[in-house]
Amino acid sequence: MACQSAWAAARTKNTYLSALFKKLAARRGRKCAIIAVAHSILVIGYHLQRKRCVYTDLGGNYFDRLHADGLRRYLVKRLESLGHSVTLQPRIASAKCFRGRRPLLPEGIRSFLRRFGFDPSIE
Fold first, then answer.
1. What is the mean pLDDT of residues 4-30?
2. DSSP per-residue codes, the chain
């Protein structure tokens, strides 16, 4: 059942688990990558239960943000090898989506959490 969940998670768009699958499948193959994603799902579930916190996805570009300088150098070299002249200028950072606030949980999830004694307020 964990592998079925991992296959479903690998097919989602712009999530950490799909990025992990793509990264590992390129190096080790699809079957090993699915086992690794299933293991990551189990580890995430364990930590969510142990710490009693809400899951926040790292995003599909997590690995790109992790090694941003190396990726930048690699892409510049690729473009220069194709005969282009490259000059990089930093972009102005965009405003945050929620301006420091977290989104509210839907009422159904909040009532479910209240029923089991958890505090549904995230602020």
1. 90
2. -HHHHHHHHHTSSS-HHHHHHHHHHHHH-HHHHHHHHHHHHHHHHHHHHHHT-------TTHHHHHTHHHHHHHHHHHHHHTT------PPPPPPPSSTTPPPPPPHHHHHHHHHTT------
**To 5 degrees, how large is the angle CA 122–CA 50–CA 57?**
55
With left for phi above 0 and alpha for psi between -120 and 50, is residue 14 left, alpha or beta?
left
State how far the Cα of 37 lies from the Cα of 26, in Å rounded to an integer. Answer: 14
Which has the minimum average pLDDT: 53-62, 73-82, 107-116?
107-116
User: pLDDT tens-digit profile of 26-67?
Assistant: 999 999 999 999 999 999 889 889 988 888 888 888 888 888
CB 53 within 8 A of CB 30: no
Work out the percent of the chain whose per-residue pLDDT is above 90: 33
Q: Where along the chain do its domains lie?
A: 2-90
